[in-house]
Structure formats: structure tokens, C-alpha cells
Amino acid sequence: MANDMKRAEGHSSGSVPNGGVSFWYSSTGLPDYRPPLPGDREADVCIVGAGLTGLWTAYYLKREQPDLRIVMLDKEFAGFGASGRNGGWLSSELAGSRPGYAKTHGRQGVADLLRAMREAVDEVIAVADAEGIDADIVKDGLLYVARNKAQVARLHESLTFERDWGAGPDDFIFLNREELDARVVVEGVLAGMYSPHCARVQPAKLVQGLAAVVERMGVTIYEQTTVTEISPRTARTDRGTVRAPIVLRCLEGFTATIKGQRRNWLPMNSSLIVTDPLPADVKAQIGWNGAELLGDFAHAYMYAQRTADDRIALGGRGIPYRYGSRTDDRGATQQWTIEALTALLHDMFPAVRDVPVAHAWCGVLGVPRDWCATVDLDQATGLGTAGGYVGSGLTTTNLAGRTLADLVLRRDTELTRLPWVGRRVRPWEPEPLRWLGVQAMYALYRSADRREYARDLPSTSRIARVANMITGR
Question: Which residues belong to any copy of the FAD dependent oxidoreductase domain (predicted)?
Fold first, then answer.
């Protein structure tokens, strides 16, 4: 009981319950811990990290080869990290630079990857339906709003960019203010963009449902087990050692906790708040009767969903990065972040000002130095990985899991030929350079947003262009 209390604890920032993993778990209840690794074990495949990347990989491996002995290891519980804390965007958005992917596989390779991402949205929905996973999934698409002239300019640039990369007329659709208001009323909106390739999800329900499915398929999940080192055919933990021909690192934002991995993927923080259920009069003013996801064209961007029980969950960056790649893994965010997100919520939806914020939390996502996602398996060493989703992981985990499964099974498929497979990325700079760089980057983005609003700039601020140079995007 004491252990359950410790892992569930959050605290109040002001009057807002804060942390305790996430609101999604406060609404479903935290799962009971599975037993830890009981000592040394052998397996055919060892998966380090029981989030969605690892779970999807295990699911497709077991579906294709049921006799595989698969062991999963997690420091906390399956779905403790970003998989159970994210904003619930089952989106086809692809992390990273398309020209970067095209350097190795050409434009057609990128077009194939974009198509695979769109198909992955429907694949997740189909598996959830087939396996009886009730995760509040509704595919009503994604809305992006522009609230000043510079954002409108970026909206049009984005439409042109998507069409240049093969998008059809129905994949991304321009919306004027009246068309946006018919879907959701956002204060100060000038124009918007709609894509049908996105669904709303309750993240904790999805990841917990998938964990239960793979367990029924015969996958062994050991929780409360800290992996300290990964080497060829070996995962060393505080509970014993697992030896397997294939060892897959599926830790995303927690990759830096493994010996020798501190500079590989930077753990970027993202924070969310969620309101109480909206009263009927507030709902009438906002509209938002569908389940569209909502984003914007600010540099320090926001993301939001209307939940199945009529709350608004809204997220954005708080403290983007903690010195030395540390992570706040209990989910508590900072008071100023809660206040900033609440102010943004009220600015976008004035009718919500009297609706209390019910919960706040945060999590970490993995960011490679070139901001592009990766799937990789070295057949010589048996070491594999997938991640670096840069906040677009809810759908990407499924595609990555299917791809890793094909690589493990040594299959030459359309998935294993996609341009994100086998990429090599240089590590992040040592401290204090990476801390200074990330802090400067987001300070510049926030400054650019303020300047674009204050000066009514017709195009993107030069400050933001400097930030883009720092990021290497």
C-alpha cells in the first residue's frame, strides 16, 4: 500500500492538483504493479521500456510468431511515461525534416513514409476495435488555427509545403474564420487548416489496454525493474540480467537513464492542464461538438483536445529541458507553467474563465539532434531501438513497432525500406552547451510570438528564424 501511495502522489500547485503521473490516470486509476524481474532470465527478445513503442513491437512480433519468448522490462509500470501522459493526438504528423529524410531515400521515400503514417492512424483504430480496447477513440480530424498575420502566413506556407510533398486536396484544407467557427469558436482566429488524418484518444486507456492484450498473447512484462545498462544480447537491471539474441531499447524520453546514452536523445518536457467538464452554457458558446484535435501556428505551440466527458485538455512547453538530461518523472509541472497554460486557455476560450482547472501534469519526449525519428536494428549485435518522435509519437509508435518487428524477423518489407530505418544521428552537445542551447531556443520562440502579436507582423519574425538555426531543424 505504501508503494502504491508513493507512486500515485501528486501535489497541489496553488489550488490545482499537479502530477501523480497524469490526469488520464487520475480518471482511470493507476494500474496495479506487475511483479519485478525475479532474477536472471533468458528470452528470444528483450524489450527495455513498456511504453507504446515496446508494446506495439511485442504485439506484432507475437502476432507473426507466437512462439517467441518476449520479456519486457520497465522501471515503473507499462505506460508510465509519455504513452500515458500525452495530449491524445493520434495524428499522421511526421517528426523531423522531410528534406533530411530525402537525402538518403529521395522524395519518393518521404512520400512513402507520409503515406505509412496516415495508414498507421487507421491501423491503431482497427487494432483497438479488434482487441476490444476502449480508448475513447474518435476520428474527427485535426484543426490548426492562425491568430495573427504571421501565423496566417505560416498557414499558407504549410499548405504549399504539404502539397509540394504529395498531399492531395482533401488531406489539408484551408478554412476561413466562418468555417472554423462552425467547428469551434476560438477567440481572435483569422484562418485555419483542417486535416482528416487524426483521431482523439484517451492515452492511458490505450496503453493499458494494449499492455493487457500483449500479456494475454504470452508476453511477460516485468515492472519495478530498473535497467542500468544495455549491451549486445544483454540487459542488466537491479533485479538480475536478461539475456536475449535481440535487445530493443524503447525508452524514448527516458533513454538518457541508460549508461552511455545521456547525449543520444534529449528529454524534452511538455506540460498539460485539463478543465472540469464544461457547463452547457459554456459549450454552447464554444461549439466544438466534434472530437477534432486543436493546434496553432505559434512558435511555442499549443495542442488541445475536447475529452469524451467534455473537458478541454491543453498543453505546451513548460521548462523545456532540465540540466544534465534529468527528468521529472512524477509528472509535476511548475506553477508558472500552469498559470501560462491557463492564461492561454482563457485567451483562446474566454467562456472558460470560470471553469476550474482540474489537473496539471507533465512528461518527457525524446528529441534527436536532427529532430528526426529513427528505427534501427543492428543484426550483428542484436541491438535495436526506435524513438525520437519529438512529440508526435502516439501514431508513430505503431508504425515503429511494426517496423521493428519486421526487422527482428529479418523481413525485407515496405516498412523496413522507409527512410527513417537505420539512420545515424550525431549526439547532442555536452553540458552546459545543450542546456544553454535549448533554453535560448525556447526563449527566442516565445519572444518571436510576442513580437508577432505586438507588432502585427505580416510574416515570421526574424527572431524565430534564428531559433530555427539553433535547433538545426
Answer: 44-407
